[in-house]
Amino acid sequence: MWRGLRNLPARAARGPRRPSMRPSSGTPTPASGATIFALSSGQGRCGVAVIRTSGPASGAALRGLTASGDLPPARSARLRLLSDPRSGEPLDRALVLWFPGPRSFTGEDCAEFHVHGGPAVVSGVLQALGGVPGLRPAEAGEFTRRAFAHGKLSLPEVEGLADLIHAETEAQRRQALRQLDGELDQLCQGWAEALTTALAHVEAYIDFGEEDNLEEGVLEQVDSTVQALQVALGTHLRDARRGQRLRSGAHVVVAGPPNAGKSSLVNLLSRKPVSIVSPEPGTTRDVLETPIDLAGFPALLSDTAGLREGVGPVEQEGVRRARERLAQADLILAILDASDLASVTSRHFLDTVVTPTGPQNACGSSQRFLLVLNKSDLLPPEGPDPDPDLPPHLLLSCLTGEGLDGLLGALRKELAAVCGDPSTGPPLLTRARHQHHLQACLDALGCYKRAKDLALAAEALRVARGHLARLTGRGGTEELLDVIFRDFCVGK
Fold this sequence. Notes:
With about 500 residues, the chain is α/β, with parallel strands linked by helices. About 45% of the residues lie in helices and about 15% in strands. Strand 1 and strand 2 form a beta hairpin. The radius of gyration is 31 Å and the shape is flat. The chain starts with 9 loop residues before the first helix and ends in a 5-residue tail after the last helix.
Protein backbone atom coordinates (compact mmCIF):
# COMPACT_ATOMS: atom_id res chain seq x y z
CA MET A 1 0.00 0.00 0.00
CA TRP A 2 2.95 2.31 0.46
CA ARG A 3 4.21 2.18 -3.15
CA GLY A 4 4.79 5.81 -4.18
CA LEU A 5 5.04 7.09 -0.62
CA ARG A 6 8.55 5.71 -0.34
CA ASN A 7 9.68 8.24 -2.96
CA LEU A 8 8.42 11.13 -0.83
CA PRO A 9 10.43 12.66 1.99
CA ALA A 10 9.01 11.39 5.24
CA ARG A 11 8.48 14.90 6.57
CA ALA A 12 6.60 15.87 3.40
CA ALA A 13 4.42 12.78 3.70
CA ARG A 14 3.37 13.63 7.20
CA GLY A 15 3.05 17.43 6.94
CA PRO A 16 4.09 19.81 9.73
CA ARG A 17 5.53 18.31 12.91
CA ARG A 18 2.90 17.67 15.53
CA PRO A 19 3.27 18.64 19.17
CA SER A 20 4.56 16.10 21.66
CA MET A 21 2.39 13.00 22.23
CA ARG A 22 2.09 13.36 26.01
CA PRO A 23 -1.59 13.17 26.88
CA SER A 24 -3.27 12.97 30.22
CA SER A 25 -4.36 9.58 31.49
CA GLY A 26 -7.83 8.41 30.55
CA THR A 27 -8.42 6.77 33.94
CA PRO A 28 -11.17 8.49 35.92
CA THR A 29 -10.73 9.41 39.57
CA PRO A 30 -13.27 9.59 42.40
CA ALA A 31 -15.26 12.79 42.46
CA SER A 32 -14.26 13.54 46.08
CA GLY A 33 -12.30 12.24 49.03
CA ALA A 34 -15.45 11.32 50.93
CA THR A 35 -15.69 8.02 52.75
CA ILE A 36 -18.74 5.97 51.82
CA PHE A 37 -20.60 3.22 53.63
CA ALA A 38 -23.41 0.81 52.75
CA LEU A 39 -24.96 -2.55 53.46
CA SER A 40 -23.22 -4.89 51.01
CA SER A 41 -25.23 -8.03 51.66
CA GLY A 42 -28.87 -8.54 50.75
CA GLN A 43 -31.75 -6.72 52.38
CA GLY A 44 -33.98 -8.43 54.91
CA ARG A 45 -33.53 -10.63 57.96
CA CYS A 46 -30.53 -12.97 57.67
CA GLY A 47 -27.88 -14.69 59.76
CA VAL A 48 -25.01 -12.33 58.94
CA ALA A 49 -25.07 -8.93 57.25
CA VAL A 50 -21.96 -7.25 55.82
CA ILE A 51 -21.56 -3.48 56.05
CA ARG A 52 -18.52 -1.94 54.38
CA THR A 53 -16.83 1.43 54.16
CA SER A 54 -14.33 2.83 51.65
CA GLY A 55 -12.28 6.01 51.88
CA PRO A 56 -9.76 7.83 54.08
CA ALA A 57 -12.02 7.93 57.16
CA SER A 58 -12.54 4.15 57.22
CA GLY A 59 -9.90 3.70 59.92
CA ALA A 60 -11.48 6.38 62.07
CA ALA A 61 -14.91 4.77 61.63
CA LEU A 62 -13.54 1.36 62.65
CA ARG A 63 -11.83 2.82 65.72
CA GLY A 64 -14.93 4.81 66.64
CA LEU A 65 -17.36 1.91 66.55
CA THR A 66 -15.00 -0.51 68.34
CA ALA A 67 -13.85 2.09 70.92
CA SER A 68 -10.30 0.94 70.26
CA GLY A 69 -7.20 2.96 69.53
CA ASP A 70 -5.68 0.19 67.46
CA LEU A 71 -6.84 -1.18 64.13
CA PRO A 72 -7.00 -4.97 63.76
CA PRO A 73 -4.28 -6.65 61.69
CA ALA A 74 -4.82 -6.17 57.96
CA ARG A 75 -7.11 -8.72 56.29
CA SER A 76 -7.70 -10.64 59.55
CA ALA A 77 -11.09 -11.04 61.21
CA ARG A 78 -11.41 -9.95 64.84
CA LEU A 79 -14.38 -10.18 67.21
CA ARG A 80 -15.28 -6.76 68.61
CA LEU A 81 -18.10 -5.10 70.53
CA LEU A 82 -19.64 -2.39 68.35
CA SER A 83 -20.98 0.73 70.07
CA ASP A 84 -22.45 4.01 68.89
CA PRO A 85 -19.51 6.49 69.15
CA ARG A 86 -21.88 9.34 70.13
CA SER A 87 -23.95 7.66 72.83
CA GLY A 88 -21.77 4.70 73.76
CA GLU A 89 -24.77 2.39 73.41
CA PRO A 90 -23.79 -1.20 72.52
CA LEU A 91 -24.99 -2.23 69.03
CA ASP A 92 -23.72 -5.76 68.41
CA ARG A 93 -20.83 -8.14 68.87
CA ALA A 94 -19.42 -8.55 65.38
CA LEU A 95 -16.46 -9.57 63.26
CA VAL A 96 -14.51 -6.62 61.87
CA LEU A 97 -11.92 -6.58 59.08
CA TRP A 98 -9.46 -3.90 58.02
CA PHE A 99 -8.24 -3.58 54.41
CA PRO A 100 -5.69 -0.76 54.09
CA GLY A 101 -5.36 0.66 50.59
CA PRO A 102 -4.24 0.04 47.97
CA ARG A 103 -4.66 -3.70 48.73
CA SER A 104 -8.43 -3.58 48.88
CA PHE A 105 -11.36 -4.00 46.52
CA THR A 106 -11.63 -0.27 45.81
CA GLY A 107 -7.94 0.57 46.21
CA GLU A 108 -8.80 2.81 49.19
CA ASP A 109 -8.78 2.12 52.92
CA CYS A 110 -11.76 -0.16 53.60
CA ALA A 111 -13.43 -1.63 56.66
CA GLU A 112 -16.04 -4.36 56.95
CA PHE A 113 -18.46 -5.09 59.78
CA HIS A 114 -19.97 -8.59 59.78
CA VAL A 115 -22.94 -8.10 62.09
CA HIS A 116 -25.99 -10.16 62.99
CA GLY A 117 -28.54 -9.73 60.22
CA GLY A 118 -31.53 -8.46 62.18
CA PRO A 119 -33.05 -5.22 60.81
CA ALA A 120 -32.55 -3.38 64.13
CA VAL A 121 -28.86 -4.31 64.30
CA VAL A 122 -28.20 -3.30 60.69
CA SER A 123 -30.11 -0.04 61.08
CA GLY A 124 -28.25 0.81 64.30
CA VAL A 125 -24.80 0.23 62.77
CA LEU A 126 -25.68 2.24 59.66
CA GLN A 127 -26.95 5.14 61.79
CA ALA A 128 -23.77 5.02 63.87
CA LEU A 129 -21.61 5.15 60.74
CA GLY A 130 -23.66 8.08 59.47
CA GLY A 131 -22.68 10.00 62.61
CA VAL A 132 -18.93 9.60 62.03
CA PRO A 133 -17.43 12.80 60.54
CA GLY A 134 -16.47 12.43 56.88
CA LEU A 135 -18.77 9.48 56.14
CA ARG A 136 -21.80 9.46 53.86
CA PRO A 137 -24.06 6.72 52.42
CA ALA A 138 -22.77 5.24 49.17
CA GLU A 139 -24.60 5.71 45.90
CA ALA A 140 -25.59 2.76 43.71
CA GLY A 141 -22.50 1.06 42.32
CA GLU A 142 -20.10 3.52 43.95
CA PHE A 143 -17.80 0.90 45.48
CA THR A 144 -17.25 -0.71 42.06
CA ARG A 145 -16.88 2.71 40.44
CA ARG A 146 -14.06 3.52 42.86
CA ALA A 147 -12.44 0.14 42.14
CA PHE A 148 -12.48 1.06 38.44
CA ALA A 149 -11.18 4.58 39.12
CA HIS A 150 -8.21 3.18 41.05
CA GLY A 151 -7.36 0.62 38.36
CA LYS A 152 -8.55 -2.41 40.32
CA LEU A 153 -11.05 -3.38 37.61
CA SER A 154 -11.32 -2.66 33.90
CA LEU A 155 -14.68 -1.85 32.34
CA PRO A 156 -15.19 -5.42 31.02
CA GLU A 157 -14.35 -6.74 34.51
CA VAL A 158 -16.87 -4.33 36.04
CA GLU A 159 -19.47 -5.62 33.59
CA GLY A 160 -18.48 -9.20 34.42
CA LEU A 161 -19.01 -8.48 38.11
CA ALA A 162 -22.48 -7.09 37.40
CA ASP A 163 -23.31 -10.12 35.25
CA LEU A 164 -22.07 -12.46 37.99
CA ILE A 165 -24.35 -10.81 40.55
CA HIS A 166 -27.32 -11.22 38.22
CA ALA A 167 -26.40 -14.67 36.85
CA GLU A 168 -29.31 -17.11 37.05
CA THR A 169 -27.91 -20.09 35.13
CA GLU A 170 -24.75 -22.16 35.16
CA ALA A 171 -23.67 -20.86 31.75
CA GLN A 172 -24.17 -17.22 32.77
CA ARG A 173 -22.12 -17.78 35.92
CA ARG A 174 -19.25 -19.33 33.96
CA GLN A 175 -19.22 -16.56 31.38
CA ALA A 176 -19.40 -13.82 34.04
CA LEU A 177 -16.51 -15.37 35.97
CA ARG A 178 -14.36 -15.48 32.82
CA GLN A 179 -15.06 -11.82 32.17
CA LEU A 180 -14.47 -10.88 35.82
CA ASP A 181 -11.16 -12.75 35.66
CA GLY A 182 -10.14 -10.37 32.88
CA GLU A 183 -10.10 -12.68 29.85
CA LEU A 184 -11.81 -10.18 27.54
CA ASP A 185 -9.71 -7.38 28.99
CA GLN A 186 -6.49 -9.33 28.38
CA LEU A 187 -7.56 -10.11 24.81
CA CYS A 188 -8.22 -6.43 24.09
CA GLN A 189 -4.99 -5.48 25.84
CA GLY A 190 -3.08 -7.75 23.50
CA TRP A 191 -4.74 -6.15 20.48
CA ALA A 192 -4.07 -2.69 21.87
CA GLU A 193 -0.39 -3.48 22.43
CA ALA A 194 -0.09 -4.69 18.83
CA LEU A 195 -1.69 -1.44 17.62
CA THR A 196 0.56 0.61 19.90
CA THR A 197 3.62 -1.02 18.38
CA ALA A 198 2.29 -0.56 14.85
CA LEU A 199 1.50 3.11 15.49
CA ALA A 200 4.90 3.66 17.06
CA HIS A 201 6.55 2.20 13.96
CA VAL A 202 4.57 4.45 11.63
CA GLU A 203 5.34 7.50 13.79
CA ALA A 204 9.02 6.56 13.81
CA TYR A 205 9.03 6.24 10.02
CA ILE A 206 7.40 9.65 9.70
CA ASP A 207 9.89 11.30 12.04
CA PHE A 208 13.09 9.45 11.17
CA GLY A 209 12.58 7.64 7.85
CA GLU A 210 14.36 10.32 5.86
CA GLU A 211 17.51 9.76 7.90
CA ASP A 212 17.66 6.05 6.94
CA ASN A 213 18.14 5.05 10.56
CA LEU A 214 15.28 2.55 10.68
CA GLU A 215 15.32 -1.14 10.00
CA GLU A 216 14.12 -2.45 6.65
CA GLY A 217 10.53 -3.61 6.25
CA VAL A 218 9.07 -1.45 9.03
CA LEU A 219 5.88 -0.57 7.16
CA GLU A 220 5.48 -4.11 5.84
CA GLN A 221 5.50 -5.32 9.47
CA VAL A 222 2.77 -2.80 10.27
CA ASP A 223 0.70 -4.05 7.31
CA SER A 224 1.05 -7.64 8.53
CA THR A 225 0.00 -6.67 12.07
CA VAL A 226 -3.07 -4.80 10.81
CA GLN A 227 -4.13 -7.69 8.59
CA ALA A 228 -3.87 -10.17 11.50
CA LEU A 229 -5.92 -7.83 13.70
CA GLN A 230 -8.59 -7.49 11.02
CA VAL A 231 -8.96 -11.27 10.88
CA ALA A 232 -9.14 -11.60 14.69
CA LEU A 233 -11.64 -8.77 15.11
CA GLY A 234 -13.80 -10.06 12.26
CA THR A 235 -13.93 -13.51 13.85
CA HIS A 236 -15.08 -12.13 17.20
CA LEU A 237 -17.64 -9.80 15.64
CA ARG A 238 -19.21 -12.63 13.65
CA ASP A 239 -19.61 -14.47 16.95
CA ALA A 240 -20.95 -11.48 18.90
CA ARG A 241 -24.61 -12.51 18.93
CA ARG A 242 -23.82 -15.69 20.85
CA GLY A 243 -22.49 -13.79 23.84
CA GLN A 244 -25.47 -11.46 23.91
CA ARG A 245 -27.82 -14.46 23.82
CA LEU A 246 -25.92 -16.01 26.70
CA ARG A 247 -26.38 -12.86 28.75
CA SER A 248 -30.01 -12.08 27.89
CA GLY A 249 -31.34 -15.53 26.96
CA ALA A 250 -31.92 -17.53 23.77
CA HIS A 251 -35.39 -17.47 22.20
CA VAL A 252 -36.73 -21.04 22.19
CA VAL A 253 -40.11 -21.54 20.48
CA VAL A 254 -42.24 -24.64 21.00
CA ALA A 255 -44.27 -25.25 17.84
CA GLY A 256 -46.44 -27.98 16.40
CA PRO A 257 -49.97 -28.88 15.33
CA PRO A 258 -52.86 -28.72 17.84
CA ASN A 259 -52.90 -31.30 20.63
CA ALA A 260 -49.31 -32.41 20.05
CA GLY A 261 -48.40 -31.57 23.67
CA LYS A 262 -46.79 -28.14 23.28
CA SER A 263 -48.24 -26.70 26.48
CA SER A 264 -47.42 -29.91 28.38
CA LEU A 265 -43.81 -29.65 27.21
CA VAL A 266 -43.58 -25.99 28.24
CA ASN A 267 -44.92 -26.84 31.70
CA LEU A 268 -42.52 -29.79 31.99
CA LEU A 269 -39.45 -27.73 31.04
CA SER A 270 -40.38 -24.73 33.18
CA ARG A 271 -41.45 -26.91 36.12
CA LYS A 272 -44.56 -24.81 36.68
CA PRO A 273 -48.05 -24.53 35.14
CA VAL A 274 -47.33 -21.81 32.58
CA SER A 275 -49.86 -22.96 29.98
CA ILE A 276 -53.36 -24.42 30.19
CA VAL A 277 -53.41 -28.10 29.16
CA SER A 278 -56.64 -29.41 27.64
CA PRO A 279 -57.66 -32.21 25.26
CA GLU A 280 -59.60 -29.59 23.30
CA PRO A 281 -57.63 -28.56 20.17
CA GLY A 282 -56.70 -24.87 19.90
CA THR A 283 -56.60 -24.14 23.64
CA THR A 284 -53.56 -21.86 23.26
CA ARG A 285 -54.60 -18.80 21.25
CA ASP A 286 -51.80 -16.36 22.09
CA VAL A 287 -48.02 -16.66 22.59
CA LEU A 288 -47.18 -17.45 26.23
CA GLU A 289 -43.58 -16.68 27.18
CA THR A 290 -41.60 -17.54 30.30
CA PRO A 291 -37.89 -17.04 31.09
CA ILE A 292 -36.31 -20.27 32.38
CA ASP A 293 -33.03 -22.02 33.08
CA LEU A 294 -32.99 -24.53 30.24
CA ALA A 295 -30.29 -27.19 30.55
CA GLY A 296 -28.04 -24.66 32.27
CA PHE A 297 -28.58 -21.88 29.73
CA PRO A 298 -30.88 -18.84 29.95
CA ALA A 299 -33.85 -19.07 27.59
CA LEU A 300 -37.12 -17.35 26.81
CA LEU A 301 -39.50 -20.26 26.21
CA SER A 302 -42.53 -19.51 24.02
CA ASP A 303 -45.66 -21.64 23.85
CA THR A 304 -47.51 -20.98 20.59
CA ALA A 305 -50.87 -21.73 19.03
CA GLY A 306 -51.20 -24.99 17.12
CA LEU A 307 -50.29 -24.52 13.47
CA ARG A 308 -53.36 -25.24 11.37
CA GLU A 309 -55.91 -23.36 9.36
CA GLY A 310 -57.78 -21.56 12.14
CA VAL A 311 -61.48 -22.15 12.48
CA GLY A 312 -62.12 -18.62 13.74
CA PRO A 313 -60.55 -15.15 13.66
CA VAL A 314 -59.05 -15.45 17.18
CA GLU A 315 -57.30 -18.74 16.44
CA GLN A 316 -56.16 -17.42 13.06
CA GLU A 317 -54.51 -14.49 14.82
CA GLY A 318 -52.83 -16.93 17.22
CA VAL A 319 -51.45 -18.92 14.29
CA ARG A 320 -50.14 -15.72 12.69
CA ARG A 321 -48.34 -14.77 15.90
CA ALA A 322 -46.93 -18.29 16.20
CA ARG A 323 -45.42 -18.02 12.73
CA GLU A 324 -43.91 -14.65 13.68
CA ARG A 325 -42.21 -16.21 16.69
CA LEU A 326 -40.92 -19.05 14.51
CA ALA A 327 -39.21 -16.50 12.27
CA GLN A 328 -37.55 -14.88 15.32
CA ALA A 329 -36.54 -18.07 17.12
CA ASP A 330 -32.96 -19.02 17.92
CA LEU A 331 -34.04 -22.63 18.49
CA ILE A 332 -37.30 -24.36 17.52
CA LEU A 333 -38.67 -27.26 19.53
CA ALA A 334 -40.88 -28.92 16.92
CA ILE A 335 -43.28 -31.31 18.62
CA LEU A 336 -45.55 -33.96 17.09
CA ASP A 337 -47.91 -36.59 18.45
CA ALA A 338 -45.95 -39.83 18.06
CA SER A 339 -49.19 -41.83 17.79
CA ASP A 340 -50.60 -39.61 15.01
CA LEU A 341 -47.73 -39.03 12.57
CA ALA A 342 -49.82 -39.94 9.51
CA SER A 343 -52.46 -37.24 10.08
CA VAL A 344 -52.87 -34.36 7.66
CA THR A 345 -51.86 -31.74 10.24
CA SER A 346 -48.73 -33.67 11.23
CA ARG A 347 -47.62 -34.18 7.61
CA HIS A 348 -48.30 -30.51 6.80
CA PHE A 349 -46.23 -29.42 9.81
CA LEU A 350 -43.37 -31.69 8.78
CA ASP A 351 -43.44 -30.37 5.22
CA THR A 352 -43.67 -26.66 6.11
CA VAL A 353 -41.66 -26.30 9.34
CA VAL A 354 -39.41 -29.33 9.79
CA THR A 355 -37.30 -29.53 6.65
CA PRO A 356 -33.89 -31.13 6.12
CA THR A 357 -32.17 -27.71 6.11
CA GLY A 358 -34.29 -26.05 8.77
CA PRO A 359 -36.66 -23.12 8.32
CA GLN A 360 -35.34 -19.72 7.36
CA ASN A 361 -35.49 -16.93 9.90
CA ALA A 362 -36.00 -13.22 9.21
CA CYS A 363 -32.31 -12.79 8.43
CA GLY A 364 -32.34 -15.64 5.92
CA SER A 365 -30.07 -17.93 7.93
CA SER A 366 -30.91 -21.50 8.81
CA GLN A 367 -32.35 -21.95 12.29
CA ARG A 368 -31.60 -24.77 14.67
CA PHE A 369 -34.40 -27.14 15.62
CA LEU A 370 -35.11 -30.30 17.55
CA LEU A 371 -37.92 -32.64 16.53
CA VAL A 372 -39.67 -34.19 19.53
CA LEU A 373 -42.21 -37.02 19.22
CA ASN A 374 -44.42 -36.69 22.29
CA LYS A 375 -46.85 -39.23 23.79
CA SER A 376 -44.39 -42.09 23.47
CA ASP A 377 -46.35 -43.79 26.27
CA LEU A 378 -49.12 -44.46 23.68
CA LEU A 379 -46.78 -46.30 21.30
CA PRO A 380 -46.42 -50.06 21.07
CA PRO A 381 -43.23 -51.55 22.53
CA GLU A 382 -41.52 -51.57 19.12
CA GLY A 383 -41.93 -47.77 18.85
CA PRO A 384 -43.36 -45.68 15.99
CA ASP A 385 -43.65 -47.08 12.50
CA PRO A 386 -40.45 -46.44 10.52
CA ASP A 387 -40.79 -43.42 8.24
CA PRO A 388 -37.99 -42.70 5.75
CA ASP A 389 -39.10 -39.04 5.50
CA LEU A 390 -38.95 -38.42 9.26
CA PRO A 391 -35.86 -36.37 10.29
CA PRO A 392 -33.78 -37.30 13.36
CA HIS A 393 -35.98 -37.05 16.42
CA LEU A 394 -36.31 -37.65 20.15
CA LEU A 395 -39.01 -39.69 21.87
CA LEU A 396 -40.68 -38.14 24.92
CA SER A 397 -43.65 -38.66 27.16
CA CYS A 398 -44.71 -35.45 28.88
CA LEU A 399 -47.09 -37.59 30.95
CA THR A 400 -44.47 -39.92 32.46
CA GLY A 401 -41.31 -37.85 31.93
CA GLU A 402 -39.62 -40.68 30.04
CA GLY A 403 -37.11 -39.27 27.55
CA LEU A 404 -36.72 -35.94 29.39
CA ASP A 405 -33.04 -36.52 30.22
CA GLY A 406 -32.27 -37.19 26.56
CA LEU A 407 -34.14 -34.03 25.54
CA LEU A 408 -32.26 -31.90 28.10
CA GLY A 409 -28.95 -33.29 26.84
CA ALA A 410 -29.86 -32.39 23.26
CA LEU A 411 -31.02 -28.94 24.38
CA ARG A 412 -27.72 -28.34 26.16
CA LYS A 413 -25.82 -29.16 22.97
CA GLU A 414 -28.02 -26.95 20.78
CA LEU A 415 -28.00 -24.02 23.22
CA ALA A 416 -24.22 -24.24 23.53
CA ALA A 417 -24.08 -23.72 19.77
CA VAL A 418 -26.60 -20.85 19.93
CA CYS A 419 -25.17 -19.07 23.00
CA GLY A 420 -21.58 -20.24 22.99
CA ASP A 421 -19.99 -22.54 25.54
CA PRO A 422 -18.52 -20.31 28.28
CA SER A 423 -16.20 -23.09 29.46
CA THR A 424 -14.27 -23.31 26.18
CA GLY A 425 -13.01 -21.08 23.41
CA PRO A 426 -12.21 -17.36 23.42
CA PRO A 427 -14.16 -14.94 25.64
CA LEU A 428 -17.55 -13.93 24.29
CA LEU A 429 -18.80 -10.41 23.59
CA THR A 430 -21.79 -10.11 25.91
CA ARG A 431 -22.78 -6.46 25.37
CA ALA A 432 -23.62 -4.21 22.47
CA ARG A 433 -20.93 -1.80 23.73
CA HIS A 434 -18.23 -4.40 23.14
CA GLN A 435 -19.49 -5.03 19.62
CA HIS A 436 -19.71 -1.29 18.85
CA HIS A 437 -16.11 -0.55 19.82
CA LEU A 438 -14.69 -3.62 18.08
CA GLN A 439 -16.63 -2.78 14.92
CA ALA A 440 -15.39 0.82 15.07
CA CYS A 441 -11.84 -0.47 15.57
CA LEU A 442 -12.21 -2.75 12.54
CA ASP A 443 -13.57 0.16 10.47
CA ALA A 444 -10.58 2.29 11.44
CA LEU A 445 -8.20 -0.48 10.36
CA GLY A 446 -10.01 -0.48 7.02
CA CYS A 447 -9.30 3.27 6.76
CA TYR A 448 -5.63 2.51 7.44
CA LYS A 449 -5.50 0.05 4.56
CA ARG A 450 -7.07 2.61 2.22
CA ALA A 451 -4.95 5.58 3.35
CA LYS A 452 -2.69 7.19 0.74
CA ASP A 453 -0.83 9.35 3.23
CA LEU A 454 1.31 8.28 6.19
CA ALA A 455 -0.21 10.87 8.49
CA LEU A 456 -3.73 9.65 7.68
CA ALA A 457 -2.63 6.05 8.17
CA ALA A 458 -1.19 6.90 11.59
CA GLU A 459 -4.41 8.69 12.53
CA ALA A 460 -6.45 5.63 11.54
CA LEU A 461 -4.30 3.45 13.81
CA ARG A 462 -4.73 5.98 16.60
CA VAL A 463 -8.52 5.91 16.20
CA ALA A 464 -8.54 2.09 16.20
CA ARG A 465 -6.44 1.99 19.33
CA GLY A 466 -8.70 4.58 20.96
CA HIS A 467 -11.74 2.35 20.53
CA LEU A 468 -9.96 -0.55 22.24
CA ALA A 469 -8.98 1.83 25.05
CA ARG A 470 -12.59 2.93 25.46
CA LEU A 471 -13.75 -0.69 25.50
CA THR A 472 -11.45 -1.48 28.43
CA GLY A 473 -11.75 1.95 30.08
CA ARG A 474 -8.11 2.88 29.53
CA GLY A 475 -6.65 5.72 27.51
CA GLY A 476 -3.58 7.76 26.85
CA THR A 477 -0.63 7.48 24.47
CA GLU A 478 2.31 7.93 26.85
CA GLU A 479 3.52 4.39 26.20
CA LEU A 480 4.02 5.17 22.50
CA LEU A 481 7.25 7.02 23.26
CA ASP A 482 8.50 4.08 25.32
CA VAL A 483 7.88 1.72 22.40
CA ILE A 484 9.63 4.04 19.93
CA PHE A 485 12.82 4.26 21.97
CA ARG A 486 12.76 0.57 22.91
CA ASP A 487 12.23 -0.84 19.43
CA PHE A 488 14.44 1.48 17.39
CA CYS A 489 18.00 2.67 17.73
CA VAL A 490 17.28 6.23 16.70
CA GLY A 491 20.32 8.02 15.31
CA LYS A 492 22.56 4.93 15.17
